[in-house]
């Protein structure tokens, strides 16, 4: 059976927010949430740095909003450095995901830092969880969106790939080492 949500490390992070590995009992809303996402009932999803808003069609439309912290300036700098040298539109491998996580800039927020609201009045509900599954599916298809959710766009990385700030160049070693006299 093929993995529907979280086939890549980029999407798997968001599946773990919906289905924490440390859960002590099953969440009865998960099957309904997966069904809603699987049947394309999550519509009008807008992904912006630090927030996601979507409408979930579950007999009636439910408006869902998720909020989470984008990367700090230091985390953005780490991510931009790791991404420098990549071409725009280039696929982001799972190795980059591991490198970002290892460098202290995890591509997804921690489950405890994600909050949300739903017009159904419950939280977390199947609609909230369906949006998480839909985000996971989108990130599986286009991992660069994970970086945009955290505040780094492809333009940031392309700029860094084509220009090196002068302050980062060491004039002593720039042209290679010199022979000792």
From TrEMBL:
Entry keyword annotation includes Zinc-finger: yes
Keywords of this entry: Metal-binding, Zinc, Zinc-finger
PROSITE patterns: ZF_SWIM
Gene Ontology MF terms in the entry: zinc ion binding
Domain SWIM-type: 103-136
Superkingdom: Bacteria
UniProt-recorded name of the protein: SWIM-type domain-containing protein
Naturally occurring in which organism (per UniProt): uncultured Blastococcus sp
Phylogenetic classification of the source organism: Bacteria, Bacillati, Actinomycetota, Actinomycetes, Geodermatophilales
